[in-house]
Amino acid sequence: MPTNFLHTPIDYLNGVGPARAKLLKAELGISTYGDLANLFPNRYIDKTKYYKINELVPDSAHVQIVGKVTHIKTMGDGRSSRLVATFIDSTGSMELVWFKGQKYFKDNLKLNVPYVIYGKVSKYGSKYNIAHPDVELLKEHRSRQQSAMTPIYPSTEQLTKRNVTNKMMVRMMQQLFSEVHNSFTETLSEQIRSQHQLVDKNTAMYNAHFPKSAALLQQSIYRLKFEELFFIQMELLLQNRIRKTRIKGYAFEKVGERFNDFYSNHLPFELTGAQKRVVKEIRADMGTGAHMNRLLQGDVGSGKTIVAVLTCLLAIDNGFQACIMAPTEILAQQHYQGVSELLEKTGLKVSLLTGSVKTKARRVIHSDLEDGTLNILIGTHALIEDKVVFKNLGVAIVDEQHRFGVAQRAKLWKKNDLPPHVLVMTATPIPRTLAMSLYGDLDISVIDELPPGRKEIKTVHRYDKNRLAVFSFLKEEITKGRQIYLVYPLIEESETLDYKDLMDGYESVVREFPTPQYQVSIVHGRMKPEDKDYEMERFVKGETQIMVATTVIEVGVNVPNASVMVIESAERFGLSQLHQLRGRVGRGADQSFCILMTSYKLSTEAKTRVETMVATTDGFEIAEVDLKLRGPGDMMGTRQSGVLALRVADIVKDNDILAVARETAKELLQKDATLALPENTSIKKVLQFLQSKKGLWKYIS
Ligand code: ADP
Ligand code: MG
């Protein structure tokens, strides 16, 4: 087979010498014709549209205007020196400004001759201006044959510095596409293309760079986005299938006595619809003989614990043991208390293992575990230590996963001959769209419904200067018997300034809420763990009314009597963190409150975060906003994901295409599991190529 033309080194392209080739490689990773062809424009400019000056609005973005320069002058000096040209058309006047290249433009701009200018408009005082516009004589502009939509390519500082302009990039592309004749290999099947009315690969490639029309551009971009998302979904689905077929798990075939007895006689409440659905999903998963690796997402208070307990019972009914791991000692204790209470009348044996369990008690636990008398072990990571040996561990439940490392999870897998089933519970919602494309190796269940009768937490925003009013509100709540959290940012526990803020805050709280009438606890990262636990304990028992803390209380602590969460410098917290903190209240029967304290100086983003918190308590909604604000790059755990290497599609904006691509991928694998049908050969070849980890846009057949 002849080597595809697209493999040609970029140096061979007319107009690209060795020096420029080196620059393109270093800056944009382009070493072949194919690489260049797969550098897609960031955006396009519609050069068929000309604006009049009186049509401009403050954010007109990039516009093209025909007019004349009537006057040029240099203004300011030193760093503020600039060249200003007055530019007019029949409807008005505006300014063109240059900070760089002043001399060139001063010498070359012609007065009172028609020009076409192009650039980004801004408004300064009452006048519109464009800084560093593209200028071209109208005569030349007319004579130049050009496509209606001009592509704007990604650039870098170095490229700009070395004068590799967009114009030059366009010229290189033109050269390339004049040599390349339909060299792009179709990656999708005929069937998928016709089903979704996707243009063919060559049409898409050509029109993505040189759109013949707006409609063709749109179709081409759609096709490329679809292609990109489709192959990611194919890879994820295939990985998931490999896990399910290759990794065996214990089959929990029966739903037995323990589960049924508990379900009919000891459930303290009726399960919500979402809880029932999730339990069903888990049951189905663990019944198959494949290994379960499932992520259970549910907002704080959505009732994940009961799901965990029912999962344990399924294991026990099938002759296995279960364990529940929590990230902190306090959380492990709370789980232990909660689970023990729930299972009190069942005669099952539950124990707690944490770092502070004494040697003697520990020995008893070890031997109970090994002879199988212990059914459920709850604890911190102490329970994955090598010396903890189960007789027959069937399922491990991990609470608040992000506090556990991958290595620790791996240890879990070795606790039995086959890896125990794993259920990871998290209260940090990941937007559905992101979750479904990120976690190829996890199945996902979602509890998207709160238990009935929950009072919505009232959230308000207050400025620092209203602190006294806030304090007197807190006093009223304390008089009613409630408890209060007061949280300070301490993003880096070592930040001395934050620490000082916390201490100053603590002192002012103690002054405002004096003993003996009030008791105030404090917990922060510089304290010894036992001191932290002691203070926490006092608050849990109701001995103190106010807990001044840093974000250490973020995760899972349950004090139903605490009904007010005050967050200081709320503008400094991220959305998901604010949401987590708020979740510490609203756990009892009383009306709960969350008070976000900020200064007057708020960035637009901080404002959006605060407003979002005030507007909704739905964790998924909040996660969606968070995703939009921060982009997927910063969302937890998404850094290494292929989703971020997207070149054409946008995981947030192209949500709809993603859903279609995923469905298409699923259907395809249902119909042709091994891609053996001739019509799917092209897809199969791409997937084989993708195993080399080079990425879709390096694929040239
Ligand atoms: P999560 O761990 O998801 O934050 P929990 O499991 O601690 O939530 O449940 C929060 C509270 O809601 C607990 O007090 C629990 O007893 C209660 N609860 C859970 N499910 C239900 C339900 N279906 N009906 C009523 N109350 C429920
Ligand atoms: Mg919980």
From TrEMBL:
Role of this protein: Plays a critical role in recombination and DNA repair. Helps process Holliday junction intermediates to mature products by catalyzing branch migration. Has replication fork regression activity, unwinds stalled or blocked replication forks to make a HJ that can be resolved. Has a DNA unwinding activity characteristic of a DNA helicase with 3'-5' polarity.
Lineage, broadest ranks: Bacteria, Pseudomonadati, Bacteroidota, Flavobacteriia, Flavobacteriales
Occurrences of domain Helicase ATP-binding (ranges): 285-447
Organism of provenance: Nonlabens ulvanivorans (Persicivirga ulvanivorans)
SUPFAM superfamilies: Nucleic acid-binding proteins, P-loop containing nucleoside triphosphate hydrolases
Any one GO molecular-function label of the UniProt entry: 3'-5' DNA helicase activity
Catalytic activity: ATP + H2O = ADP + phosphate + H(+); Couples ATP hydrolysis with the unwinding of duplex DNA by translocating in the 3'-5' direction
Name used for this protein in its record: ATP-dependent DNA helicase RecG
GO annotation, biological process: DNA recombination; DNA repair
Top class in the EC scheme: isomerase
Family: Belongs to the helicase family. RecG subfamily.
InterPro entries xrefs: ATP-dep_DNA_helicase_RecG (IPR004609), DEAD/DEAH_box_helicase_dom (IPR011545), Helicase_ATP-bd (IPR014001), Helicase_C-like (IPR001650), NA-bd_OB-fold (IPR012340), P-loop_NTPase (IPR027417), RecG/Mfd (IPR047112), RecG_dom3_C (IPR045562)
Recorded superkingdom: Bacteria
